[in-house]
Design goal:
Organism: Chaetoceros tenuissimus
Number of strands: 0
Protein name: PLAC8 family protein
InterPro entries: PLAC_motif_containing
Largest sheet: none
Distance between the termini: 34 Å
Keywords: Membrane, Transmembrane, Transmembrane helix
Shape: elongated
Radius of gyration: 28 Å
Strand content: under 5%
Length: 253
């Protein structure tokens, strides 16, 4: 019983209000420049998807996560291989949605990025659904018609527009990735992205998909605007409340 008295005295002492000098000293400590002041702000809708999804590790900063031809890094049934091969427009649309890009390759808010995805997705669906039928019909008409030049033009024009649209999206997306992560140009210099998009478009889309998502941590999703699970938070860390930050500062003192 004799040993419990000091503990009770200490508890009573802690529960007493601070003296004026102690309160002034605590205020001086909290307002000191030596202690960083953290102000919690609400997360805006323009926040990028969490950094460990979009960005590689610090060791990979300034370079691509893997090579252009590492298409089968996660197997032949992985979306990063199948989508660029069968429908590269949807693959590049997912990459643009992850990076919140609009149709001119600039950073936009969440609604603009979502609209961009659905525009590209709609175009891709139209091409997949009606493209083969139109192509076969036009080819049959061209073979039966004496005006072969005009019919050939009807076939080449839609294919050229779709190909150029994919080329354009790959170039602006790769440039956005380079700018964001300070990746230098390759062997072709300033024309590197254009050359890659023109010669190896499917490989370029696959590389962008692997670079902007850490598939070693997060599984790939086929039907998704980002190609990633919906439960992934959009920030590298949750916003802290002001009270929690102040408590941490007092404890550190």
């Amino acid at each position: 019983m004799g040993k419990s008295q000091p503990i009770n005295d200490a508890t009573d002492e802690l529960q007493q209000p601070l003296l004026a000098d102690d309160q002034e000293q605590l205020n001086d400590i909290l307002s000191s420049d030596a202690i960083p002041v953290v102000i919690a702000e609400p997360v805006s809708s323009e926040s990028m998807i969490r950094s460990d999804v979009i960005l590689p590790s610090d060791d990979n900063q300034g370079r691509w996560r893997d090579g252009l031809f590492n298409c089968c890094s996660y197997g032949c049934c992985h979306p990063s291989f199948c989508l660029p091969l069968n429908c590269p427009l949807i693959g590049i649309a997912q990459v643009m949605r992850r990076m919140s890009l609009n149709l001119i390759g600039k950073r936009g808010n969440e609604s603009q990025a979502t609209l961009t995805f659905f525009i590209i997705f709609s175009i891709a669906c139209i091409i997949l659904c009606f493209g083969p039928k139109i192509l076969i019909s036009s080819l049959g008409i061209a073979m039966q018609s004496s005006e072969g030049t005009n019919q050939t033009f009807m076939i080449v024009l839609p294919c050229s527009i779709a190909t150029f649209f994919l080329f354009y999206l790959i170039v602006i997306t790769r440039r956005a990735i380079r700018k964001r992560e300070n990746i230098p140009n390759g062997c072709c210099g300033p024309c590197d992205d254009c050359c890659v998009a023109a010669v190896f478009p499917c490989c370029a889309v696959g590389q962008a998909m692997r670079h902007t998502a850490n598939y070693n941590i997060y599984r790939a999703v086929w039907i998704s605007t980002t190609g990633l699970p919906d439960g992934i938070e959009r920030n590298s860390q949750p916003a802290l409340s002001t009270e929690h930050v102040l408590d941490q500062r007092v404890e550190s003192v």
